[in-house]
């Protein structure tokens, strides 16, 4: 894989300029740009900077819309439903999460349903947002208009990648952040692999005959050679993780985040593309009768970390550890981008007549010390 190292702060500014030129408000452009770079810093490149190529295309075609407000459909003290009007998902989901946090702080718990959000990005970021406020949370997400995944036992697309996130706050930001797609790999990871990034496992997809494959062509078909590959163009599918268990969880996401929110599921009816989100927020202080929650949670997490490593593992990690370590490393040494993605960003910048000094974006490769 041929990559360049990019300064993350400079990249945020470039993405911000692209989004502003594409019609986003100052606030939403800043939020989406920050979210994309943060996702890549955490090692979730599938939901990170690579997405700007698709967002630029979608904003131009109207598949997602800039400057859409969050509209309340139902608003009770602890249950809210919002409509995003096909707007910028990261901006809408952050605002919906902020409202859910405020209500949970006031009432002890809150449930937020969001429909018709463009693409909300890395789901774990909203669990992190809740943890920073001291709240535990559970998020279920679906992607309407995005049949990409074959359920267990099938060779046909019936499900979106349907991610789940759970956050439990820990002392000093040492939070438990579980975030995963219910497909074996996220669609964005297939996109990264298809554009010169890390290869997929050999069983990540099935082809049209139901045979296992790791070739992104099964998902994108001939569009894999295009500037923005289309994951709906192939005749294969992603697979669910965990066989029947992961498949069942994916179906639950479709029903909870798709049907229950009003976003739509990936059944026989074709819905407009958009994320549905069902988020549950809990204030641990309201349940913490013996005042031992923080102590018990920290003690257990440290117990797990101190477990004897299996052969081939240096140490035991819990969800959130790898992301924090990766972010520290990439912020210090530079954010790696494939040449394909970097060149795509520069092409967009030039097409929009945005002035950017490429040299200001690049970081020199770290030099190995001479022993």
Automatic annotation (TrEMBL):
Pfam families membership: Ldh_2
Keywords carried by this UniProt record: Oxidoreductase
GO molecular function ontology, one term from the record: oxidoreductase activity
Family note: Belongs to the LDH2/MDH2 oxidoreductase family.
Protein name, as recorded: Malate dehydrogenase
Organism: Thioclava indica
């Amino acid at each position: 894989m041929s990559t360049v190292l990019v300064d993350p702060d400079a990249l945020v500014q470039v993405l911000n300029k692209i989004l502003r030129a594409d019609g986003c408000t100052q606030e939403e452009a800043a939020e989406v740009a920050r979210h994309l770079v943060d996702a890549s810093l955490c090692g979730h490149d599938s939901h990170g900077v690579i997405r700007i190529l698709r967002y630029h295309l979608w904003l131009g075609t109207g598949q997602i819309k800039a400057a859409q407000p969050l509209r309340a459909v139902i608003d009770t003290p602890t249950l809210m439903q919002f409509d995003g009007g096909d707007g910028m998902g990261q901006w809408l989901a952050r605002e919906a999460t902020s409202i859910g946090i405020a209500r949970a702080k006031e009432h002890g718990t809150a449930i937020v349903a969001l429909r018709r959000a463009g693409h909300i990005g890395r789901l774990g970021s909203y669990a992190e947002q809740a943890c920073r406020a001291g709240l535990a949370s559970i998020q279920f997400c679906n992607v309407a208009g995005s049949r990409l995944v074959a359920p267990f036992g099938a060779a046909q697309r019936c499900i979106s990648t349907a991610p789940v996130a759970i956050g439990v706050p820990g002392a000093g930001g040492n939070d438990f952040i579980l975030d995963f797609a219910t497909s074996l790999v996220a669609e964005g990871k297939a996109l990264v692999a298809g554009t010169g990034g890390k290869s997929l496992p050999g069983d990540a997809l099935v082809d049209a005959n139901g045979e296992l494959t790791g070739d992104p062509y099964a998902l994108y078909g001939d569009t894999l050679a295009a500037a923005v590959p289309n994951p709906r163009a192939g005749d294969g599918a992603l697979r669910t993780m965990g066989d029947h268990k992961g498949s069942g969880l994916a179906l639950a996401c479709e029903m909870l985040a798709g049907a229950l929110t009003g976003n739509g599921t990936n059944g026989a009816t074709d819905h407009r593309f958009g994320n549905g989100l069902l988020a549950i927020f809990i204030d641990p202080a309201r349940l913490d009768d013996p005042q031992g929650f923080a102590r018990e949670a920290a003690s257990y997490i440290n117990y797990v970390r101190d477990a004897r490593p299996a052969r081939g593992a240096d140490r035991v990690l819990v969800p959130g550890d790898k992301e924090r370590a990766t972010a520290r490393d990439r912020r210090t040494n530079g954010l790696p981008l494939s040449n394909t993605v970097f060149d795509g960003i520069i092409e967009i910048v030039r097409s929009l007549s945005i002035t950017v000094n490429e040299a200001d974006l690049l970081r020199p490769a770290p030099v190995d010390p001479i022993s």
